[in-house]
Amino acid sequence: MALQGDISNATLLIVDDQVSNIQLLQMVLRGAGFANLHSTSDSRMALELYLSLRPDLVLLDLQMPHIDGFGVIDQIKAADPDHFAPILVLTAEIDTAVRYRALDAGARDFLLKPFDRVEVKARIRNLLEMRLLFKQTVAHATTLEQTVAERTLELRATQMEIIHRLGRAAEYKDNETGNHIIRMSLYCEVLARAAGLDAADQEKLLRAAPMHDVGKIGIPDRILCKLGKLTAEEWEIMKTHAEIGADLLSGSRSPLIQMAQAIAWTHHEKWDGSGYPRGLRGEDIPLAGRIVAVADVFDALTSVRPYKPAWPLSDAIAELRAGAGRHFDPRLVALFCNQTAAIQRIRADYRED
Questions:
Q1: Structural domains in the chain (count)
Q2: d(Cα 188, Cα 191) in Å, to the nearest integer?
Q3: Helices 340-349/178-194 angle, 10° precision
Q4: Residue 151, domain member (yes or no)
Q5: What is the pTM for the complete model shown?
Q6: Domain boundary among 145, 163, 188
Q7: Closest CA to 332 of 268, 287, 301
Q8: Pairing mode, if any, of strands 57-61 and 87-91?
Q9: 44 is in which domain, residue-wise?
Q10: Same domain as 197, residue 98
Q11: Cα–Cα distance between 175 and 226 in angstroms, integer?
């Protein structure tokens, strides 16, 4: 990997209370092709310069008044804990304990005073090569993360579109409209929020709810589209849509599809155990299924159907209250009936043409 040009363009910060040392280092470094050099002889300015310059390397004296080199290292590490630049310590100390302390504090290498010009160039280039490779790795990782995030969003959008379209296919087959599943899903989100579900589960329910009647795809048109009352035999066939939907959605590793399967299977169960297909009772019915049951019935009541006009909001609310404890989870009914402002907004935004 070619780094020569990048190294020459690197930003270096020299912190040394001896101006003569700074001048010597600058002369050596300019002779080696480095032009982006900055310095201070006041250690109290080191952190401010570091934050404004974001240097690729810091050449730092240890023995300085006001704030010594160890103090400057601590300041830089605290201000930039994840990506702070390598620190090359300038010291006349040859004591092993001092070196160990500097390494433990975060120094990467040492330059002994008086400086050897060849050593200065070699050590600085070695550290800068590591620094620039690190920066390239970080930049590459960031690019990969962004790419993964973009692809994830694309996949998620595609998944949502497929789910929504499949849900609409079932509704259109049943002579219902796309706005029904939009309203019903939004009602589910409102009720999930009121019931205390976290934001992730609220959104998952919003996305899974359109699949509640996907099993109607497997119901014959002569039954599904029949305008008159179904016979007992036809009704038994109609009820199988819950199991058909659960079967269509089974076996997925996606938490979203798993929730959709639970909803398809249980949204016709009733609180008192009189629902179908399994006659589940009370909290044995998954919460998502109980929420969808409330939202689905409410939207059916307040929507026009070939066999009935839309009910007024007050009548639909009264019907939900009447079904609390029998058809519906009474707690969810109470919560839903307290969300009339949000319900009215959804009805207005997604009313039928």
A1: 2
A2: 5
A3: 160
A4: no
A5: 0.58
A6: 145
A7: 287
A8: parallel
A9: 4-145
A10: no
A11: 10
How many residues does the structure list for the chain?
Answer: 353
Task: Report the 3 state secondary structure along the chain.
Answer: CCCHHHHHCCCEEEECCCHHHHHHHHHHHHHCCCCCEEEECCHHHHHHHHHHHCCCEEEEECCCCCCCHHHHHHHHHHHCCCCCCCEEEEECCCCHHHHHHHHHHCCCEEEECCCCHHHHHHHHHHHHHHHHHHHHHHHHHHHHHHHHHHHHHHHHHHHHHHHHHHHHHHHHHCCCCHHHHHHHHHHHHHHHHHCCCCHHHHHHHHHHHHHCCHHHHHCCHHHHCCCCCCCHHHHHHHHCHHHHHHHHCCCCCCHHHHHHHHHHHHCCCCCCCCCCCCCCCHHHCCHHHHHHHHHHHHHHHCCCECCECCCCHHHHHHHHHHHECCCECHHHHHHHHCCHHHHHHHHHHCCCC
The per-residue pLDDT for 67 is 93
Q: 203 with 313, same domain?
A: yes
CATH of the domain at 122: 3.40.50.2300
Domain for residue 166, yes or no?
no
Give the pLDDT score at 320. Answer: 97
The pLDDT of residue 1: 39
pLDDT along the chain (353 residues), means of 10: 63 93 91 91 94 91 90 90 80 76 80 80 83 76 82 72 66 62 93 96 92 88 84 94 92 89 96 97 97 96 84 95 97 96 93 74
Backbone angles phi, psi at 67, to 5 degrees: -130, 120
- Tokens 């160890």 correspond to what residue? 70
Looking at the structure, tell me whether residues 340 and 206 fall in a common domain.
yes
Structure tokens at 29: 């470094």
Residue 167 lies in a domain: no
Q: Check residue 321 and give its pLDDT.
A: 97
Listed in sequence order, the residues at least 6 apart from 109 whose beta carbon sits closer than 8 Å to its beta carbon are 86, 88, 89, 123, 126, 127
Report yes or no: 163 and 274 within 8 Å, Cβ to Cβ. no
pLDDT of residue 173: 59
- Any idea what the CATH number is for the domain that residue 343 is in? 1.10.3210.10
- 113 and 8, same domain (yes or no): yes
Structural domain contains residue 161: no
Task: Based on the fold, state whether residues 125 and 30 are members of the same structural domain.
Answer: yes
